[in-house]
Please model this.
Amino acid sequence: MAATAAALAPNVALAAAKDAYAASPYRKITDAEWRKRLPPAAYVVLREEGTERAGTSPLLKEHRKGTFACLGCGLPLFSSDTKYESGTGWPSFYRALPGALLTKTDYKIGVPRTAYECAQCRGHQGHVFNDGPRPTGLRYCNNGVALKFIPA
Ligand SMILES: [Zn+2]
Model:
């Protein structure tokens, strides 16, 4: 039990700092309910912080104008204006929409990385790195299966 509490601590601290969606009904959805709502591959990413296999997302080839929203709750996360070809095999963006994401440090691969999640439902989306293009220098490396594209 102690290990679980420690693992959750960064989330809790982050949420306390700024949590505009604390009262959202999406926060009350149980794990069992998410499992029913989401396609299995999306459940693994959004609720278990999984990573889809590189090169598998149809959104890699999505080049229309529009918005990339959280598959879990529909919150708009990225504009197509900030999508770019990173060559990584995951949909990549250099900027998130304001207030759309919460970040935390994870150590899943042994080195610290900055994971981010949807600010509303707290579904895991991906990781952000400092090797992106101008003007931000950021690379939001997102699991396509956790997103849905809404054409403009
Ligand atoms: Zn969400």
